[in-house]
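Structure ticket #2291
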Amino acid sequence: MNDKFLEGKGALITGGASGFGKGVALEYAKRGADILLVDIDEELLEETSKKIEVETKQKVIPIVCDVSQVNQVKQMAKQAFEELDNIFVLFNNAGICPGYGKDILKADEKIWNSTIDVNLKGQWLISKFVCRNMRRQPFEPLAGKVIHTSSDMGMVVDITVPIYCISKAGIITLMQILAKTLAPKMTVNSISPGYHVTGIYANSEDVMVQTMKIGNVKTPLNRVGTVEDIVNVALFLASPASNFITGHNFVVDGGIVDVGVPANYLKTDI
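Resolution: structure written out below.
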């Protein structure tokens, strides 16, 4: 495969200032893409954008946007297509995980609203206002590609983050609806990470491992996840190698969901 398979193409990445978004943005730029980097943290967004631009010599355009606010998303999408003449890849990635430790009967309405608004409503809004233009692009055989970030907790729930689980399960459903809606012009898939060292765990492997121990999580591949694990799948989904795949959720969790032990807090004798 051509190492510069994204040359002449644009990529829009939400939650782009750190974590998976930052890692994916850097690697897409290395493959020739010009980058639209979207985040709510203006200072970190500017810093990340400059670093990627210096390292790759590609155009990197930072756009501050709260993905849960429809007017901001509409303006961001308008600006994005003014800044670049195309967006071939949308990495719909922004997400939050507040309220750890509160079960669903004790969760605050404020936490419900913020989590659903950013994680699920936000991904819907981004897709709604960006994909309308993407599907009209003249690229062949596909006009564009969409990649959503979900979670393995959207498949096997963790009761310590119930609203997060609900939002991530919703993203998988949203992805499948979009895949049917946008076919055959575009592909839409999702990635479900497991336990990876990112901002959700304060960028601390120790915090993440402790969380896994509390939840009795067992990973068959016997290591924690990295940003690079997700980046590699996002590269594949942006490449021509994935052109015949749509509507699929890629679980990247070291085998926890399929053959390991997901988070559980059962207090039973059997």
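Closing remark: DSSP finds eight helices and seven strands in the chain.
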